């Protein structure tokens, strides 16, 4: 499971005060010191940790007493609520355009899981929302990307629009939009090219596709295993493109959790989905409250 180390440590720390009939300010202080260390070790952004600790402290000391909970449980409840709010509070749903098709640009660095996530999202939209998406193979630089998306399309029995790798991504996007309108697709999922790092050329091309397709959603796909780097990548993409949501992939791996806990507050962009494996059905809407409960046990 994701965040195992963090979960274990936080649970251990919180268990010490769970049953306490009385919680002193010193108890809270001691506990918060341990929570702080656990978060830093999980690669959570330094500023985020600081803000988190001060909100919990403020609320945990001198809060209203609920009769149904022991003081220890109340502190844990505060930690849970603050963790939830750190990850965005309410679940944030994928956009729906008032006039179809809804255009979704999938962006991110190479290897983050963009192509896989495009297939997963198409599957999710059909299965859970009864939609008819068109996937668009616009990653012409990674040699296997077009084939990979076509294979996913075959596997899902869902259409993939491609024009090979000799046509510019902007041209592909333009033709795909026409095709989607003709064939009444209600979602267009554009799998754009990634690079090994954020560069000028990549961003310029993405800006062009954005200008041409006026996407309702720009989803940044990031690898949760990369921790703080994922947060930095999200900041760069957000500055240039204005992303509307994040998909955190590989949360099934033994990520330390830093990305999941920092991305929302650093970029002010909601995490919309979590990738939980390599298979096409391993995509889940991201629920901050469930994730917090999972971490706290
Ligand atoms: P792209 O370069 O961003 O298009 O990345 P790919 O979609 O090709 O994914 C890169 C690798 O990550 C592939 O081996 C995928 O199977 C794997 N991958 C993608 N998402 C997940 C996930 O949520 N969990 C796991 N375990 N692997 C994933």
Automatic annotation (TrEMBL):
* Protein's GO biological process: SRP-dependent cotranslational protein targeting to membrane
Cellular localization per UniProt: Cytoplasm
Spell out the molecular function terms from Gene Ontology: 7S RNA binding; GTP binding; GTPase activity
Give the record's GO CC terms: signal recognition particle
In terms of domain of life, where is this protein from?
Bacteria
The residues that the entry says bind GTP are: 108-115, 191-195, 249-252
Portion held of the full protein: 1 to 297 of 449
Q: Which gene encodes it?
A: ffh
EC nos:
3.6.5.4
Question: Family, per the entry?
Answer: Belongs to the GTP-binding SRP family. SRP54 subfamily.
Q: Do the record's keywords include Nucleotide-binding?
A: yes
Could you tell me which species this protein originates from?
A: Evansella cellulosilytica (strain ATCC 21833 / DSM 2522 / FERM P-1141 / JCM 9156 / N-4) (Bacillus cellulosilyticus)
Q: Which reaction does it catalyse?
A: GTP + H2O = GDP + phosphate + H(+)
The organism's lineage?
Answer: Bacteria, Bacillati, Bacillota, Bacilli, Bacillales
* Official protein name in the record: Signal recognition particle protein
Entry text on domains: Composed of three domains: the N-terminal N domain, which is responsible for interactions with the ribosome, the central G domain, which binds GTP, and the C-terminal M domain, which binds the RNA and the signal sequence of the RNC.
